[in-house]
Please model this.
Amino acid sequence: MISINIYAIYSLWLREMIRFFRLKSRVVGSLAPPFFFLAFLGFGFGSAVMPAIPEGVGYVSFLAPGIIGMTLLFSSTFGGLSMLWDREFGFLREIMVAPVSRLSIVIGRTAGGVTTAVMQGLIILVPGLAMGLQIPGLPAFLLALVFMLLIATTFNSLGLAFASRMKDMSGFSLIMNFMVFPVFLLSGALFPISNLPGWLQTLALFNPLTYGVDGLRGSLIGVSSFPLALDLLILAGSSVAALSLGAYLFEKSDVE
Amino acid sequence: MDAPAIAARGLTMRFNGFLAVDGVDLEIERGELFGLLGPNGAGKSTIIKMLTTMLRPSAGSARVWGYDIKRERDAVRNSIGVVFQDPSVDSQLSGRENLDFHGRMYGMDRKTRADRIAEVLELVDLTEKADVLMEDYSGGMQRRLEIARGLMHHPAVLFLDEPTLGLDAQTRRYIWRYIERMNEEEGVTVVLTTHYMEEADHLCERVAIIDQGRIVALDSPERLKDLIGADIVTLEVDDSVTDEQVGALSDLEGVEAVDRAGSTLRLSVDRSEARIPEIVLAASRAGLLIRSVTMHEPTLEDVFLKFTGKKIREAESAGAGRMAAVQSRMRTRRH
Model:
């Protein structure tokens, strides 16, 4: 029997919110890299002509959705992996000994991690707007918000899946450097993937973030490589798949 | 009649063939303050982990408050509060926020939570520190908050795994007082583990002495000490002791038993303060060269010695070896 404990989900979500607003220095720290990417690449390449960017689209407008995708990727993966800290500092036991289904725990944590990641994505939107990004209107913004939610759900769940398989913190930097960075660079966030050699392009097609960044571009600046419906479908699929994997591995993991 | 608070039958935990808990039978009454006493590595924490559903037993079964720990895990979890051996608070949250989180996890509504938080904070004298972040709490305060949290949702049984480990003597006494107070005022059944003899002696109504995964003795501290009977007189002598010399001492009036370990003799003596002169004289006559004489009333340490043939410290170092073995086994299992 699957049971859902609404109070517990809310409690786990609320904890992430309290921590997010309390640990401001951590938030500033995690927003600094995407901000610098946006500022320096944006100003540095702003007037250069990047091949394969559609006519009439400035590099800053092209880059800003990619940087939002980057922010979501890093913060949500980190959010999923933060279960490692809870295990390290013992708080996971407090969660696990409560009369709450494992599924509720996964949903609560994911809801918290996704919310904080999307908030960071929205924060990084502000300097993008200041540098010249123009959002067509409210529906476009809401569509972008849906893409943000799906990107965050996918990578938060993957982070949780990895954290469930790891017994200590040693794997953390491995994941960040060997999974998160390639996923970022192979997503078309900084340049169109059509500039890559063929085999790397193929690899990029297996990267969920490729469709996330494409969807953000489609909704925010009206330019995309794939139909938005396809982006949406693939991302929804990756969200469900990753969430199921995370929930399954979390269910299997030992507390001790 | 109500089911006992805890009933375990043949509870066993095996880590890769290594027996951490070996067929434990245990019955704890409702409202009791019960202690599991034994050296580190004896299996106390593993027993607690099984009873609190954090580990599945390899064999045997147990009921907690009438619920089966394997088949009715959520019902068990609903009936218990747990204070773990290692810290388990969110240090970025305040004391109140940690309690609030806990209350929600157990489905308590806002009003119930607020009332109960005030109550349990009062019980452990932390009302004034409620809104301080946990990272600014001292070790003893943190422990008290964890005890308050364990009580927050009105559990029927509260498990405390080494509640005073690493705390100074004064803080330990405070914690003892809180544990007694909540056992009396809240009527909660308390099961605690400890490797401090005086803690079990002072706090517990009944004590199970655990060694190498087995219960070797179980009774009230008084009755356990009565098994030793009289006072203990310890003689340190110069050389090893012959059977005749032991015989000379055990023939004395009031001497109930003589244990010999190398050059140490332990005599159980009734009303020892009046008999020490005779004992010393008799020992000299038998040709023993006495270096020192000490006497004390029986403690649980003597009980432990009687049942296991070793002191708890010695068992401790052996136990630590056992623990290291378990941990290395568990590590190999994980990777």
User: Anything to note?
Assistant: The mean pLDDT of chain A is 91. The interface with chain B takes residues 5, 7-8, 10-11, 14-15, 18-19, 22-23, 89-101, 167, 255-256 of chain A (CB under 8 Å). Chain A has one domain: 6-252.
